[in-house]
Amino acid sequence: MKTEIFKTKEELGQAAARQGAELINKAIAKNGVANIIVATGASQFEMLASLIREDIDWSKVTAFHLDEYIGLPMTHPASFRKYLKERFVSKVPLKEFYYINGEGDISTECSRLNALIARYPIDVAFVGIGENGHLAFNDPPADFDIEDPYLEVDLDDDCRKQQLGEGWFNSFEEVPKKAISMSIKQILKSESIICSVPDKRKANAVKNVVLGKVTPDVPASILQTHPQTTLYLDAGSSYK
């Protein structure tokens, strides 16, 4: 796992997007198409804002949604479908974008997504790290062994408090307790992983991820085992 540190979150986002664009264009040159995973949350604001300005033939790119709350309508301010539609999908002419729908039958939706992503080897995964060390919505202790690409997960209180603290909800009680998340194993199948983690509140999690042992109690520590992962930090989130 490689680490890059920048002074500001804006510089972080630009650098992460630049590397992402290079990897996407490399995949298109090699295979004619590229397949990517896109994350959400406050950590991805600057990266996505830069990525949509990169020189990429988006008509050759298929993208997958990383995680979504269960039971939250797309009209809710915290909906990740809403987030991605407004900040990414509506901004670039993608070949295809596969949203996660957390409002219907969850087993059926996971089966649908699992069948879809099995057809698309992932070239680049854009992810973040939670304050509790989670990767996607795989909260500690995460399941490192489950083979299913998408699964229903429980959100722990620390994760839910982070969502409240970032301003997505008006009260802790309003934050959903369950979500559909991409699994750890599926994320690790990506050829390259770009992990953007700005802000001081993430510094302790970053330290545990980079310097600690690989453990389900720090889910994102598993990124240590992926040879093509780059961790992008700013002055606040840096553990140095």
Salient structural properties:
alpha/beta; 31% helix; seven-stranded parallel beta sheet; 240 residues; Rossmann fold; three-stranded antiparallel beta sheet; globular; 20% strand; 7 helices
Helices, by number, come to 7
- Terminal Cα separation, in Å? 16 Å
CATH fold title: Rossmann fold
Got a strand count?
10
CATH class: Alpha Beta
State Rg: 16 Å
Give the CATH architecture: 3-Layer(aba) Sandwich
- Catalogue the unreliable spans: none
Helix content: 25-40%
Polypeptide structure, described:
The chain is an alpha/beta fold and 240 residues long. It has a single domain (2-234), classed as Rossmann fold (3-Layer(aba) Sandwich). It is 31% helix and 20% strand. The protein is built from seven helices and ten strands. It has helices at 9-31, 45-51, 80-89, 106-117, 157-165, 184-188, 203-211, and strands at residues 2-6, 34-38, 61-65, 67-69, 96-98, 124-127, 150-154, 178-182, 192-197, 229-234. The protein has a seven-stranded parallel beta sheet, covered by helices on one side. A three-stranded antiparallel beta sheet has the order 4-8-7. The protein is globular and about 45 Å long. The relative contact order is 0.19. The model has no long low-confidence stretch (mean pLDDT 97).
